[in-house]
Design brief:
This protein is mainly α. It folds into three domains: 134-325, no CATH class; 348-465, no CATH class; 466-603, no CATH class. The protein has helices at 2-23, 81-86, 89-96, 135-143, 152-163, 174-187, 191-198, 208-220, 228-233, 241-253, 257-270, 275-287, 308-317, 323-326, 331-338, 345-349, 352-358, 363-375, 377-380, 386-397, 401-412, 418-424, 426-430, 439-451, 455-458, 470-478, 487-496, 503-515, 520-530, 539-549, 553-563, 574-586, 590-603. The radius of gyration is 34 Å and the shape is globular.
Amino acid sequence: MKRGYWLAGAALVISSSVVVAQRAPESILPGAANTPAPAPAPATPAPTQSPTASGEVVQPLPSAPAPVDTSGISLGDIPSVEELESMTAAELDEALGLRPRYDIPPAARRATREIGIIAPAEGGLPTGSLARQPASIVRAALGAVQGPMVSRWGHILMRRALASRLDAPQGMGPVEFATLRARALNSMGEYAAARALVQDIDTANYSPALTRAAIDAYVGTSDIVGACPAVRLGKGDEETPRWAMLEGICAAFAGESQRAQNDLRRLLSRAEGDARLDVLLAQRFAGAAGEGRRAVTIEWDGSGDLTPWRFAMANALGEPIPEDLTDDLDNSMLISSALTPALSAGQRIRGADVAAASGVLSARAIVDLYSLLYAEREQAGEDPALPVASRLRSAYVDPSPAERIAAIRDVWNGSDDEYGRYVLTAYAAARVTPSADFADDSGDLIASMLTAGLDRDAMRWANAVDEGSLGWALLALANPQGGTVTDGQLDTFFDDDESTRSRKSRMLLAGLAGLGRVGQDEIAEYSDRLEMNFTAPTRWTRMIDKAAEVNNGALVAYLAGLGMQGTSWDQMTARHLYHIVSALNAVGMEAEARMIAAEAVARA
């Protein structure tokens, strides 16, 4: 309505100016021709045009323009000159209705159904998994996912459940459902998956919340230009400097270089303190498009903390970040660096261990990254990851099994995040022939293989591990053929357990109980011995048990992900593990249940 007032007022001003111009015309004729003529007599309405006797057509005199109806219009709603001058070009386009609404022809637009990137035939969950579920449960489960998960396999399961092509639950709009999933993926560090998910929806259908989630995904992958459709066409309600900077960047890449320069220059004049660095990075990025060739000097001195925006912009621009700002990157930035193809292999490897341990990078992906660094070793110079890449090559191709295992140990011992290195050596461990000579390393080798789901390769060690050892415990959980564990085997493992507060024993009992591989008598006996209780109910345990009871795999996966949030396995309880493994096993996700249970014992 306000825009209508403005436009009507503008029409009033324009038509008024025309009338004034008609009242005081300026003659361009010289001399006597400039003498005013007498005022004409009032004219009577002209008859219908008819030819005169000479055949000429007499034209009627022009009538005065119809007055503009200004009733109900408040002149106070019309922006002042100062307000107009302060508006960006995007704000003017929005006010005048010039902003485009669609970037896809009508025949190519997609319905907001089955949103996702993994079809059921590709390993995704069934499309109608949540169609009849109450929206409140799904909203609560996904809305509470606000960080990483302690389990690599739990992360992988959650990513598959979030990225599957699914219909929205009953009572929830498909755009809201997609927004909740994209937010959850972003919070897990799965920026690439979140970006692919939001791209499955036409930009014209975006809500403000989905627009924000989409921009977070694009920034997380350092794909700044990729965010432009969401910025220029999406329904954004952000009144933030980030949004204004993106508008300027996107205008530059749309061929509106002058407009972009003006908007960013205005934004820079208002920025204070270290906020100027953000705008300077945006100006540098916008200058790479069109004719915006303007030298921009980036000065990091006094820039404060390294924010996700600065990290993404610097990576996209190839702008070196001072070492004192990168010494203590958080996990989200480390994961983002591992996923950014604009960085060198050495720069990406810095975050590869964290990304692999969390589940973002697969075993094949992290091996490819180290292989790339080794292939570029002449250009890598003194890269600290190069010796690891060299030892990793030996772990795969050395003809001596003992030397391969020695190389694997060297790879494990070279990182603070040992579990990420276990992922790196998974396929190398699978190439080792089982032997009693390597019994001391069997537990770690089996744990490494299971990070990549190589359960059948791991089972080759069944006759080479000692009963009650770590390797035996992992195989008892990971065995795809099932089987039961006896009281004597459990007793041997518990007696030799040196973990803090017998956490490995607790996780082993919880995993075996959830998989149904230990009897009720043993559960009762060792629960008392370890002072734990699987059956004490909570609101979350009741929800996940009910979801398993009705055989809803998608909801079980979401609730399992909710129960595995955290940054350390110290935050995971055996009771939670029992309900997660039991529920997954009940809905047919037995493979994921086995891998999560084995990981819990390995990392406890």
